[in-house]
Amino acid sequence: MRKFEIVKDNKRKNKNTKIRLPKRGTNYSAGYDFCTPVDIEIEPYGTSELIFTDVKACMNKNEVLLLHIRSSLGIKQNLVLANTTGVIDSDYYENEDNDGNIGFKLRNLSDKTVRISAGERVFQGIFMNYLTVDDEENLETARTSGFGSTGN
Predict the structure, then answer these.
(1) Residue 109, Cβ density class (10 Å: 0-12 exposed, 13-18 middle, ≥19 buried)
(2) 124 and 104 Cβ atoms separated by less than 8 Å
(3) How many C-beta neighbours within 10 Å does residue 144 have?
(4) What is the pairing mode between strands 32-35 and 51-52?
(5) Is residue 133's pLDDT more than 80?
(6) Burial code of 34-73, b = ≥16 C-beta within 10 A, e = fewer?
(7) Residue ranges of E strands in the chain
(8) pLDDT of 61
(9) Quick check: 140 pLDDT over 70?
(10) How far is 36 from 20, CA to CA, in rounded Å?
(11) Can you tell me the distance from the alpha carbon of 107 to that of 79, in angstroms, rounded to the nearest whole number?
């Protein structure tokens, strides 16, 4: 089952904020728009702090959620996601470290301070199927935490 949920209360980073689950803008939109739960201010050529959305994504085992900056912020404000494209694997959902809380950082490529208000749409998530090689060895590695956990 593919769906978005609010993370468990004990893993929320923005406890007093009403969280809006991602949704598509039209029937033919590929991306689900994620909103920032907090105000963001990024100095020229600077990078925001890590901001957690308090949203997690449940998906099938052969799927991935790819995160991309919304074109309005990329083109008009010169913002990019700090990791350029976010990759949310299916086993990130409900991991013990942060319950699958999806986080992001933004990088300002302009010479002007950029301000984004809480509740604004910032990036979009697109679910995709992926393929693996046929002769891959069985992987014993299991996700135990959040960001970068499989690269230990």
Answers:
(1) middle
(2) no
(3) 12
(4) unpaired
(5) yes
(6) bbbbbebebeeeeebeebbbbbbbbbeeebbbbbbbbeeb
(7) 3-6, 32-35, 40-42, 51-52, 55-58, 63-69, 79-81, 86-89, 103-104, 106-108, 114-116, 121-129
(8) 93
(9) no
(10) 9
(11) 6
Q: Distance (Å, rounded) from C-alpha 114 to C-alpha 122?
A: 12
Helix (H) or strand (E) holding 71: helix 71-71
Q: What phi, psi does 58 have (nearest 5°)? A: -100, 135
Sole residue written with tokens 């308090």: 54
**Pair of tokens at residue 120:** 């604004």
pLDDT tens digit string along 15-65? 999 999 999 999 999 999 999 999 999 999 999 999 999 999 999 999 999
Q: What are phi and psi of 89, to 5 degrees?
A: -80, 155
User: 106 burial class (0-12, 13-18, 19+ CB within 10 angstroms)?
Assistant: buried
